[in-house]
Design brief:
heterodimer, A: 211 residues, alpha/beta, Rossmann fold, 6-stranded parallel sheet, 4-stranded mixed sheet, 25% helix, B: 506 residues, 24 helices, 12 strands, globular, binds iron/sulfur cluster, FTHF_cligase-like_sf (chain A), Lactate utilization protein C (chain A)
C-alpha cells in the first residue's frame, strides 16, 4: 500500500466513531464600524508603533513626496505595473537616480536587487486594526523577491484600500495569489525578549497613505 | 462530507522521532531546576509574554467569539480530515505543487533527503519548523552529508551552540546576551572580534552571517502554520524575514507539515490570523506572513514540494478523549501561563513539544507506554490556566486526567500483584466508607506530629508516597483533626442527620 493510502486508511479508522461536524459560529466582527478617516488614523498609529515611517499625503502630491524621500538614493527598483506618473517627481530630477524596472521579460537578478537602495510598490489592501499591509503580487506590487531583498521598502497605499478588520481584507483578496502580509519592518525579540527592528527583511518601511 | 469507514479497524500506529522523554519528567525536572539562569530567564520571558498576550487579547471585543469559531473550525477539520486532505491535495497539485505522504519520521526524512539529492545540493536553508524538529531532520541530513542551516535568530543561536530549544516561541530564551555574543564570536566566520552584547548588534551580526547564504541558497525547507483545503494554500507566520527569504529566493522549496494543520477554507484564516499572533507573541499581528499556492510562474520557487506527515497524529486522532490536542496551533500561550513549565523549562519534557500541550500531545502521539512519556501527564497541577489561555479551547486538564487513567490502566495490566497504589486506594475506600473508620484513623494524627519532629515538617514519606516528598516537604499534621476539634467545640451537637447539607454550609 502506498504511504498515502496507508495514512488515509489510518485516519478513517481513527474516525470510525464518526464525530459530528459542528456548525461554525461566526459571531466575531465581520465589518468595520469606523469612518474612512478613523481607519486611516488607526492604521497610522499602528504602523508608527511598529517603527515604520508613515506619511499621509493627497494623491496629487505623492510624486513630490516620493522624490523627497528618495533624495539621497542612487538606485531603486519598481515593478513593471507601477504607474509611471508616481515616478514623475523622480524623473524630473537631473536623471542621477537609476530606476530599474522588474518585469516578466526582464527579471532582475538577486545581486542586482541586493545593490539597489529601495523598492517602490503599491499594496492590495491594509487592515487598520492590526497595522497590516498586504501585497498580492499583482503587477504594481511585483514579484515577492523585489519587495524583500532591497533594504528599504516604500509602499504606496490608497486610503480607500484601508479596511478595519481582517475579515474585510480576506473578502477582498484572492487566496491563490502569492501574498505577503507586512506589519512593520522585520523584527526579532529573540535576545532577552528585547525587540530589535530590522533583521532579514527590509530594515526600513515607509508607507505613503494617499488620500 | 463525513465519510463512512467500512474497513477493518486497525490498531493505532504511533509516532517516532523526537517525541519521547528519555528520562521521567520528575527526574529531568529535578536537574533543570538547578539551572538558575534558565529559571530566571524563563520566569522573565513567560511573565513578559503573558502580560503582552493579556493586553492584546483584552483589546478585542470579540475575542471569545473568535475562540468559539476557532475551536469549531478545528473540530470540523478533524471530523472531515480525509475529504479535506483530498481537496487540499487536488488544489495544491493543480497549481504545480507536488505532494508526498510520510507515515513516520523515518519516511519523511528519506523523502526530504531524496528531494535534496535530486537537486545536487549539499546545503539547505531552513525556517523554524516544529515538524522537522519532531522528525529530527537536521541530524538525519547531517548523516547524509547535507548541511541544514537554521535561519531564525534563536534557532541559529541554539544550532551554533549545539544546544536544544527551551521554548517553542523563543527557543534561545535560556541564554543571555553575553552568552550569545560568546557563541557568535566562537562559531561565526568573519565576525567582528569587537562584537558587543547589544541585541541590535547581535541581530546585525546574524543578518550578515546569513545574508550570503540566503542570496545563494538553492533549496529551502520550511514548516507551515496552516494549509487551506479549499484553495491548496500554505502559510508561514514569522517575524524576522528569514521565512520570506527561504520561501522566495531558492529554486526548490520543501515544506513538511502535519496532516492536522489544515483548515477547511480560505475564509478560516481570518479567524486564525487573529488568534495566533495575539496568543503567541502578544502582538496585534506578526511582522510577516507568507502565503503560497503551489507554484507561481516567475515568482518564487518553481519546484515546490509538500510532505504530509502522520507520525502518530492518526494515533492521537483515534483517541476520542484526546483528539482535540490535534487542534493545537502551537501558539505557546499554555506554556507561558503554566506554573510547572515556568520553573522546569522546556528541556524537562524531553519531546519537541513541551509544556501543557506537550504533556498531552507527546504521549498521545507515541502511546502512553512509550519510554518515559507516561510521566508527562503528571507534569501539571491541573490548575486550568492553560485551558483558559488556549485560543482554540483545548481542554488540556481533562485530557491530562484521561491520560493519567490510561497510564494507570497500562501499569495495572503489567503487574499482577496489587501495587502500593492499589493497596492505598483500598485503604482509603475503607476509611471513607464510614465515619467511624475515619475517627479511628484520626487518632493516629499525633504520631505524624511526632514523626515530623521539631522542624514540624516531614521530609520523606515511605513507599510510593516518597515521590510526593521528593521535591517538597510536608508540614507536620496537626495534633487533632478538624472533626475532632468540631466535636470538642460543640460538646452537645444536634444529632447529625444530613452530612451533605452540613458540608454545604462550610
Ligand atoms: S494547546 Fe492551545 S495554548 Fe497551547 S500551544 Fe496549542 S493552541 Fe496554544
Amino acid at each position: 500500500m502506498s504511504a498515502r493510502d496507508d495514512v488515509m486508511s489510518r485516519i478513517k479508522s481513527a474516525l470510525r466513531d464518526a464525530p459530528p461536524t459542528p456548525d461554525i459560529p461566526r459571531n466575531y466582527r465581520l465589518a468595520t464600524n469606523k469612518t474612512a478617516a478613523q481607519r486611516c488614523e488607526q492604521l497610522v498609529g499602528r504602523l508608527l508603533d511598529y517603527k515604520a515611517n508613515v506619511y499621509v499625503v493627497p494623491t496629487t502630491q505623492a510624486p513630490a513626496k516620493l522624490a523627497q524621500l528618495l533624495a539621497d538614493a542612487e538606485s531603486i527598483v519598481v515593478p513593471h505595473g507601477l504607474e509611471e506618473h508616481w515616478l514623475s517627481g523622480l524623473r524630473d530630477d537631473a536623471g542621477s537616480l537609476r530606476i530599474e524596472v522588474d518585469s516578466p521579460e526582464h527579471r532582475l537578478s538577486v545581486s542586482a536587487l541586493d545593490s539597489v537602495d529601495a523598492v517602490v510598490t503599491t499594496a492590495a489592501v491594509a487592515v487598520s486594526e492590526t497595522g497590516t499591509i498586504i501585497l498580492d503580487g499583482s503587477s504594481s506590487q511585483g514579484r515577492r523577491i523585489i519587495s524583500l531583498v532591497p533594504d528599504r521598502h516604500i509602499c504606496l497605499l490608497a486610503a480607500k484600500d484601508i479596511v478595519e478588520v481582517l475579515p474585510e481584507a480576506i473578502a477582498r483578496l484572492n487566496a491563490t495569489a502569492p501574498q505577503t502580509w507586512i506589519s512593520g519592518p522585520s523584527a526579532t525579540s529573540d535576545i532577552e525578549l528585547e525587540r530589535v527592528e530590522g533583521v532579514h527583511g527590509p530594515r526600513t518601511l515607509d508607507v505613503l497613505i494617499l488620500t | 462530507m463525513s465519510s463512512t469507514y467500512l474497513g477493518m479497524p486497525s490498531l493505532p500506529v504511533f509516532g517516532t522521532g523526537n517525541l519521547n522523554a528519555t528520562e521521567s519528567f520528575p527526574q529531568a525536572a529535578k536537574r533543570e531546576l538547578k539551572n538558575t539562569q534558565l529559571r530566571a530567564n524563563l520566569a522573565h520571558a513567560t511573565h513578559t509574554i503573558r502580560d503582552k498576550r493579556e493586553n492584546a487579547v483584552a483589546e478585542l471585543p470579540d475575542w471569545e467569539e473568535m475562540r468559539d469559531a476557532g475551536s469549531a473550525i478545528k473540530n470540523a477539520t478533524m471530523a472531515n480530515l480525509p475529504a479535506l486532505l483530498e481537496a487540499f491535495e487536488t488544489n495544491f497539485t493543480a497549481r504545480g505543487g507536488i505532494i508526498h505522504w510520510a507515515r513516520d519520521a523515518q519516511e519523511a526524512n528519506e523523502i526530504v533527503t531524496a528531494l535534496i539529492k535530486e537537486t545536487g545540493e549539499t546545503e539547505v536553508v531552513k525556517v523554524k519548523s516544529m515538524a522537522t524538529a519532531e522528525i529530527g531532520l537536521n541530524e538525519y541530513l547531517q548523516e547524509q552529508g547535507i548541511a541544514a542551516f537554521e535561519t531564525d535568530l534563536a534557532e541559529l543561536i541554539v544550532q551554533l551552540d549545539h544546544d536544544k530549544p527551551s521554548h517553542i516561541l523563543v527557543p534561545a530564551i535560556h541564554k543571555n546576551r553575553n552568552q550569545i555574543r560568546d557563541i557568535f564570536l566562537r562559531e561565526m566566520e568573519e565576525v567582528d572580534p569587537g562584537l558587543s552584547n547589544e541585541p541590535a548588534r547581535l541581530a546585525e551580526a546574524a543578518r550578515r552571517h546569513l545574508r550570503k547564504k540566503f542570496l545563494s541558497a538553492k533549496v529551502a525547507i520550511s514548516g507551515a502554520n496552516f494549509g487551506l483545503a479549499d484553495t491548496g494554500t500554505l502559510t508561514v507566520v514569522e517575524s524576522e524575514g528569514n521565512g520570506r527569504m527561504c520561501l522566495t529566493l531558492p529554486d526548490t522549496l520543501i515544506t513538511v507539515m502535519g496532516i492536522e494543520k489544515l483548515l477547511p477554507s480560505w475564509r478560516d484564516l481570518e479567524v486564525f490570523m487573529q488568534l495566533l499572533p495575539r496568543s503567541s507573541t502578544g502582538e496585534r499581528m506578526n511582522p510577516y506572513t507568507s502565503l503560497w499556492t503551489g507554484v507561481t510562474p516567475g515568482d518564487g520557487p518553481q519546484n515546490v514540494h509538500l510532505v504530509l506527515l502522520d507520525n502518530g497524529r492518526t494515533a492521537a486522532l483515534a483517541d476520542q478523549m484526546g483528539r482535540t490536542a490535534l487542534n493545537c496551533i502551537r501558539c505557546s500561550a499554555c506554556m507561558n501561563v503554566c506554573p510547572v513549565y515556568e520553573r522546569t523549562g522546556g528541556h524537562a519534557y524531553g519531546s519537541t513539544y513541551p509544556g501543557p500541550i506537550g504533556a498531552i500531545l507527546s504521549p498521545l502521539m507515541t502511546g502512553i507506554k512509550s519510554e518515559e512519556n507516561n510521566s508527562l501527564p503528571y507534569a501539571s497541577s491541573l490548575c486550568g490556566a492553560c485551558f483558559d489561555a488556549c485560543p482554540v479551547k483545548i481542554n488540556i486538564p481533562e485530557i491530562l486526567v484521561h491520560l493519567r487513567g490510561e497510564d494507570v490502566d497500562s501499569q495495572r495490566a503489567k503487574v499482577k500483584v496489587p501495587t502500593q497504589m492499589d493497596l492505598m486506594m483500598k485503604a482509603s475506600e475503607w476509611a471513607f466508607s464510614d465515619g467511624s473508620h475515619i475517627n479511628l484513623l484520626e487518632k493516629g494524627l499525633p504520631i505524624g506530629k511526632l514523626a515530623a519532629g521539631r522542624a514540624k515538617v516531614i521530609k520523606k514519606l515511605p513507599g510510593i508516597a516518597a515521590g510526593w516528598t521528593q521535591s517538597r516537604d510536608i508540614p507536620a499534621p496537626p495534633s487533632q483533626s478538624f472533626r475532632q476539634w468540631w466535636v470538642k467545640e460543640h460538646q452537645s451537637p444536634e444529632p447529625r442527620r444530613n452530612p451533605a447539607k452540613e458540608e454545604d454550609q462550610l
